[in-house]
Amino acid sequence: MELGPIWRAILRNKGSYVLIALQIAVTMAIMVNSIAIMQERSSQMGRPSGVDEDNIFTLKSVSFVPDVDKRALIDADLDMLRSTPGVIDAFSSNSFPLRGGGWSMGLQLEPGTGIDGVGTAIYFSDEHAIDTFGTNLLEGENFASDEVTWNDEESSQWPGTAIVSRALADALFPDEEGSVVGKTVYINDDNPVKIVGIVDRLQAPWDGWDNVENSMLVPSRRDSDMVRYIVRTEPGYREELMPQLEEKLAENKDRIIEQVRTMNEVRARSYLGDAAMIKMLSFIVVLLAGITGFGIVGLASFSVSRRTRQIGVRRALGATRTAILRYFMIENFIISGVGIIVGGILAVALNIVMVQAFSLTPLAWYVVPIAMIVLWLVGQAAVAGPARRASNISPAIATRSV
Amino acid sequence: MLRYYFKLGALSIRANPALSALMVAAIAIGIGACMTMMTIRYIMSGNPISEKSDQLFYVQVDNWDPSEPYDEPNEPPVQLTYLDATALHGAAKASRQVISFMSMRVVEPHGEDAKPSQIEARATTTDFFSMFNVPFAFGSGWDKSSDDTNDRVVVLGQAMNQQLFGGEDSVGEMITLNGESYRVSGVLDYWSPVPLFYDLNNNPYNEPAQIFLPFSVAIAGEHDRSGNTSCWKPIGDGGRAALLASECISYQMWVELHSDAEKQDYLQFLDDYVTEQKTLGRFPRPLNNRLNDVEEWMEYNEVVDEDVGVLFGLAILFLLVCLLNTIGLLLAKVLRRAKDTSLRRALGASKSALFTQYFVEASLIGVGGGLLGIFMTWLGLRGIENLFNEFDFIDKLVRMDWVMMLAAVALAIVSALAAALYPTWRACNVTPATQLRIQ
Fold first, then answer.
1. Are A126 and A219 in contact (CB under 8 A)?
2. Interface pTM, i.e. ipTM
3. Domain membership flag for residue A135
4. Tell me: the pLDDT tens digits for B390-403?
5. CB contact under 8 A, A62 and B118
6. Chain A neighbors of B118, CB-CB under 8 A
7. Cα separation of B313 and A355, whole Å?
8. Which candidate from B22, B315, B384 shows the least CB-CB separation from A294?
9. What is the pLDDT of residue B436?
10. Mean pLDDT for the stretch of residues A263-283
11. The total number of structural domains that make up chain A
């Protein structure tokens, strides 16, 4: 191999090669870190909410006339919703997964003040909640309809029972081997709550919360002016039923129906920032690879045209086309090699800086070698064209005076 | 002579159209990416009340749980309890003081087919308007006496007045909110501070409230709070009265203080207040009261989204790659022409003449890239607006003002110079003899 002569030729003309190697290095640092962030975001977006997102829609009802019988209104609405053909079930609550706003409380194993609790989201609900969300009841039992109470909006009364998500049960009783159904925890310092059931998954309303998998259904309904309905339809009926039901509910002029959204829309809104971040970063990565790739093409073309005569001489002295092709490919291989090695170091350094400055997770080690291979391939692909042109230079060029 | 160099430069650029386009595009894209993120960062970290932001202080007192701070390591709660908000406001120890909270109200327009809508209202005290330099189109804020009575008066935002009264002077007119009648005391001019410094507990890029009404009216009318409420201690029985008497925080307070001495006095007053409350069995934590001015409070609340910082950092590196790319290409280009250069040198061209010639050529590329970069910035901002079009507030974050325009021009010039200098310097250092010998 002609490594020696190629290396010495590079050294004679350091300027451009240092620049391109540096460009590849910085490109690599940006790419690796962008990909690390994209990975983090897409794995967050991939977490299931635990509800039947494709068949659920939600809406908000706000009554604004004083002294309206809110309990009767909510009951009438729910009766109407549940009896509509195509609707599987419906219930009223304060919030639902991915909404971005809700109620959270701490649960503790002992009654008393000043005890560290486990944070959880609270969903006020009734016996229809599990069926409406479409989450699986793993253990225990659903609420009985006579267990569900009405409470004032400002009430500090807590019902004595709850259904919790699997993650919350595990967080409360990490060492428990058997079932935790029937165990009692305490809310609000000393109100006992007995766990009567466990669902396999039900996320809290905040996608960025540390305890996002912790949630709790309580058999209590609140009669506030503002209430949210969660409606689950038979597959395929949602798009048709959603506007119809909105119209039907809006017939009552003493209230406003707002934020009628499918669960898919709720998810898209919740993760809008993450999705946008992924789009912007992939745009940056593609542009970068393009600019660096074309930059290599340009440099190689200049380099070929500058050395036309020398190539002709080499061809005249017996070098084969493959030898010429190989020369340029190896030259690029060496420059890219220097670039991606420096780039690997830069990428890790940049990652360390970014993890310290921002709340990012460190990059996975395998991203670095993958990015190295990709950039090396981009370099080889970019240089292939100019190198082929070089190999086609006729030996007769050598005899001409350029 | 310069004209001739421009002609030469243009010719040389046209000789390699694809590569010249690549160089211009690389600079343009790099500047576009950088300026897009810089613009958003600049708007997010803006100070909408710079004329007096060092005189406005956000009040925090630490009524939290004795066993753990509100936030690590030892941060006091970010809002006040009803007890403390009203007591501190009532004491009136600062030259101006404002307490407030956010709630949602349903506006019922007059007329048969007009649909009611739910909008954000701010329950506050009348100093709000003078303290935050809120501009009025008609009328004024309510009288100070209405802060303590139950007068249902209201100040409308410009958009609300447009919607309800077609933008006419509506002072003295009545409007209906959740079935209650309010008299309009004033109408605001256009007012949309970014970030919304007076309430950083909610989205700092939201539009300000369109309805302002007295704090006392909202409390008496049992208006729901739609901001955050956090509690560390169980609320006793007794419905709303118990909630108001609880240790739950949901109210915000600002004071206006004109000197450091006034600030020290006010801190002393807060300490005295808390010490007195301790004798009543409240405030179990050590004294930990805070006054942050607007800038400090925005910093504390990290109003600049973290992703913007990440993207800004990456965009700067991106620009670096684009510049390296253009420098490398320009360098390769002048080196290829080393023969012409040495010929010209041998024929007597001075270094400075060559420098001028190549610099003109490189600058053409740089300036082209810079100009296109400003367009790319505009394009980038439109792209981001599009990505976030679900959010009403996004259009406020993607506006280019003249400061950012100038910054874009400056960055374009600096980038162009940076890209042009090194290759030009290399070009004029070609020695006359060596290149000719080969011939």
1. yes
2. 0.87
3. yes
4. 888 888 888 888 88
5. yes
6. 62, 64, 256, 258
7. 13
8. B22
9. 57
10. 93
11. 2
